[in-house]
Amino acid sequence: MSGVFSAITNNLAVTIPILVVLIAALVVYLVLMVKAILDMLRHGVHAVLLTFAFLALIAVPLFVIMGVVVLIIWHRHKRDLLVARG
What we know:
Elements: H1 2-10, H2 12-43, H3 47-55, H4 61-85
Helix pairs in contact: 2-4, 3-4
């Protein structure tokens, strides 16, 4: 077990930037999800899409992938809503 920690501490010049990039990507993802959820609530979207969007706020890798799919679906659905209104 100490071999893993020593390998990480020996490569801190590589490990720290990777962690910073991953944390920044997670923060951007969560901000986009919250913004999409607020838009969904404002437009009165179906409860199923909202349920999956709320589940996507959990930072588990499979839920993050699902969240990206929800963001894509919402982007297209929102575009269709705006075209229908106006």
